[in-house]
Amino acid sequence: MKKSLIVEAGGGPLGITIAGANVPDAQLLDATIAAIVLARPPVDEDNEQHIALDKGYDNDTGYGVCLDHEYVPHIALKRDERPPRTMQHPARRWVVERTLAWLSMCRGILIRWEKKSENYLGMLKLACGLLWFRRYHRLADLR
């Protein structure tokens, strides 16, 4: 089972999808961006929206999906004969890995007990909501 997760800069989950383990990451990108539950702010020249991805998305599909959804892609480069590109913002994969580790603290997610993928996706979304609740509660205590 492959979990594809999109998070904001602090690690809060915005959208999640699941697929079989044999599906490449770049093919899940469109579904993952479409799974974002919050409305995006309007995209204009002053308000560019960036997306940082790892090397699995360094192909035409990954770039195409980012541009279709009006994101500025920052994708880690594979080492091949492509011309060098300027790297202004490095891909920060550890933020997503940390969020996946937070989700894995739920026993029902760490060990998949559900047979139906819809039930497992529902459990993942419930855990994402729980992460946001804990985060909001922690920030409210600081005020």
Structure description:
This protein is of the alpha+beta class and 143 residues long. The protein has one domain: Nucleotidyltransferase, domain 5, CATH 3.30.420. The protein has helices at 25-34, 60-68, 93-103, 107-110, 117-142, and strands spanning 2-7, 13-19, 50-53, 72-75. The strands form 2 sheets. Strands 1-2 form a two-stranded antiparallel sheet. Strands 3-4 form a two-stranded parallel ribbon. Helix 1 (25-34) packs parallel to helix 2. The longest helix is centred in the last third of the chain and has 26 residues, at 117-142. The protein starts with a strand and ends with a helix.
**CATH class descriptor:** Alpha Beta
Which geometry do the CA atoms define? globular
- Stretches where pLDDT is under 50 for at least 5 consecutive residues are none
Q: Mean pLDDT across all residues, rounded?
A: 86
Annotated CATH topology: Nucleotidyltransferase, domain 5
| Series of secondary-structure elements, N-terminal to C-terminal | EEHEHEHHH
State the domain count: 1
Count the helices. How many? 5
Largest sheet: 2 strands, antiparallel
Rg calc: 16 Å
Range of strand content:
5-15%
Briefly note the structural class of the backbone: alpha+beta
User: What is the correct CATH architecture?
Assistant: 2-Layer Sandwich
The count of DSSP E runs of length 2 or more, i.e. the number of strands, is 4
Percent range of helical residues = 40-55%
Q: Strand order, biggest sheet?
A: 1-2
Span from first to last CA? 40 Å
